[in-house]
Amino acid sequence: MNCPETMAKILIIDDEPGIRSSLKAALERRGHETVTAENYTEGKKFYTAEFDLILLDVMLPDGNGIDLLKEIRPQRQNQAVVMISGQADIDMAVEAIRAGAYDFIEKPLSLDRVLITIDNVGRSMILRNEKDRLSLRVYGEFIGESTAIRKLKEEITLSAPKASRFLILGENGTGKELVAHLIHRHGRHPDGPFVAVNCAALPSELVESELFGHIKGAYTGAGKPRKGRFLEASGGSIFLDEISEMSPEAQAKILRAIETGEITPVGADKPLVFDCNIIAASNKDLDKLVAEDKFRQDLLYRLNVVQFRIVPLRERRNDIPLLAGYFLDKFASETGSAKKEVSDSALQLLMGFPFPGNIRELKNLMERINIYCPRSLIEAKDISPLLPHYREDRPMTLKEAAADFERDFIQSAIERHGGNITEAARRLGLERSHLYKKMKKYQNE
Q1: How many CB atoms lie within 10 A of CB 180?
Q2: pLDDT at position 234 over 90
């Protein structure tokens, strides 16, 4: 349902035949598509299909509709469900809304009220889709189809709606903030704010005020009250990046906030309650820091309810073509330039590069290509001058140096022959299959 006037697909779950048939007839006369179910069991069979709206009776002969709503919500977070009941009271309505119902309508049903609700659901969906589009534009997508990334995405989808504390580990440039935002989008408060805090950039003397806020006059220069990042994130998610860089004092204050669900602004007498997902990230080995007495073990235990580890790009080289194409399209769109493609020889070169800076380094490289390469088809010779020569700066054995020479020699031969593997193999005096084996070997190193 893309706009309020567009036909909606609606599931009606109600045990009263008269309500099912009258609603179905009235809604279908207005162009909506409807499916009906007469009880909890039948409704459970249908709800996994794509519906714009589910009208769900509370009192069903074989179960409670609010229980079914609670079953639907973790699996289909954006599913609009409107509860209906002929025995409604305030407590029932509050319970339904708290369980995630979009609205609550009392029987006997007013057709006008139902139609207005369907229009409101449509408008909400438009706003949500626009919010998702803008969020993706700001934060970007977490791209990857390798086995490790597919597993990571599946684990996020499974755990994000059920937990409130997460720990993300990974090298610099692997996309920890993108994963944090993905957790937020699948988490308990997807429509709430996502507040990112770089803990390494917080001045030690301002940590408490920055995270927990302050009242007016709390200290010299505090001319206005400030909410602080935890309260700003209430109803959403706070992302504490580089948590290991916080001082022991700040670690103790965060631990207390997590344990109590309360923060006390600087200068205030009373604590304030907050409710948000807490997502922390680090590029360091936190267990090792605990052993060295540089990170609190009790804070690690509190944060480490659900842990995600992002593999470096060198361990998911098969995603490089996908990522390179995504970034080239993104920069072409942002700069209004013509779209570029990467040739097979250029991809071979990229997939053999170690990318110590991970995805951030690949992204920067694609941005430079978008700026400096005028051709629409990018060849290996266009990329080579833009790659840093990391291997020159580190000590290596004779075997490693020989392997590097062979890798470069093969790469140069492929570049000279425009990516023509058959011709490159002939010039190198190798069988084509042998050359492919060597290329595969160097890609996997």
Answers
A1: 27
A2: yes
